[in-house]
Amino acid sequence: MTVFDLTGRRALVTGGAQGLGEGMARALAAAGASVVVADIQDSGEQIAADLPSDGDRKHAFTRLDVTSESDWERAITETITAVGGLDILVNNAGIEITGLITEVSPGDIRRMLEVNILGTTLGIKHGLRAMRPDGAAGNGGVIVNIASVAATIAFPGISVYSATKSAVDRLTRVAAMESGKLGYGVRVNCVYPGLVPTAMGAGLANDMATIGLFGSPDDAVAAVVEQTPSGRLGTVEDIADAVVFLASDAARFVTGAGLPVDGGMGM
C-alpha cells in the first residue's frame, strides 16, 4: 500500500460522463476507490459500469444537475447508499462559453455563473454537510474543486469563464478555512488545469477562431502551447493524477491550496 492508495474510499465526481470528469473517475477507481459518476448525461451510467471493480467494491451513476439543490440532496443520499459512504467529492462539472466582452450575452453570463459558481458552491455545501462529524457519512474527507488556468492568466475571449474559475479558487480557500475552524475534518483544495484537447478544449479553440481572435483553431492551440513552458497541451491523465494526489494521504497536510497543472502556463 502507498500513500496514493485509495482503497476503501468512496468518491463522487460531477461531470463524470465525459472529458476530464470521466478521466478523474477512472483514475480514482484505478487507485482503489469506489466511484459514483454524477452527470446530467445518462451516458455516465455506462462509464460507471466500465470502471474496474474487485471484491465488494461497487461503482454507481447518479443523475445530477449541479445547479439544483434538491438534486444535490438526492445525489449525496444515493451515493452514500450505493457505495457505503462519501470520502472524496470532486466538483468538476463546468461550462465555458466563448465571447468577447463587447458581445457577451446576459444569458451566457448567467449560465456560466450558475454551473461554475452556484454548482460548485452547492457541491461544497452538501459535501461538507455529509462528511463532517454529524453528517450522513461522518468520517471527514476531501473536496477537490476544478478551477482553470483561466483563473490565473488574461486570455482573450473567456472573460466570464475566467471570472467564474477565479471564484472557484476563492470558494475553495474560504471553505478550507471554515472546515478547519469548525472541526469538519474535510480538506478542500482546487486544481487549475491547463488546456486539454477534450471536447470542451477543442470547442474553445474553434470558438476562438469563429470570433476572430485567431486565424484558425490550430492558431489558437499554437498560442496556448507558445505560452506553456512545457511546450505541449495537457492530457486528461495529467489532470486526473493531480486529483488522485489531492484526494490521497500524500496530500494529508494540504488544504486551502490551488494546484496548477498547466505546464507552467499560469506562472
Report what the structure shows.
- The chain has 267 residues and is an alpha/beta fold.
- Helices cover 44% and strands 14% of the residues.
- It has a 7-stranded parallel sheet with strand order 3-2-1-4-5-6-7, with helices on both faces.
- Helix 4 packs parallel to helix 5 and helix 6 crosses helix 7 (217-226).
- The longest helix is centred in the middle third of the chain and has 26 residues, at 106-131.
- The chain is globular.
Ordered list of secondary-structure elements with their pairings:
Layout (H helix, E strand, L loop, with lengths): L9 E5 L4 H12 L3 E6 L4 H7 L9 E4 L5 H15 L4 E4 L14 H26 L9 E6 L12 H23 L4 E8 L5 H12 L6 H10 L9 H12 L10 E4 L6
Parallel strand pairs: 1-2, 1-4, 2-3, 4-5, 5-6, 6-7
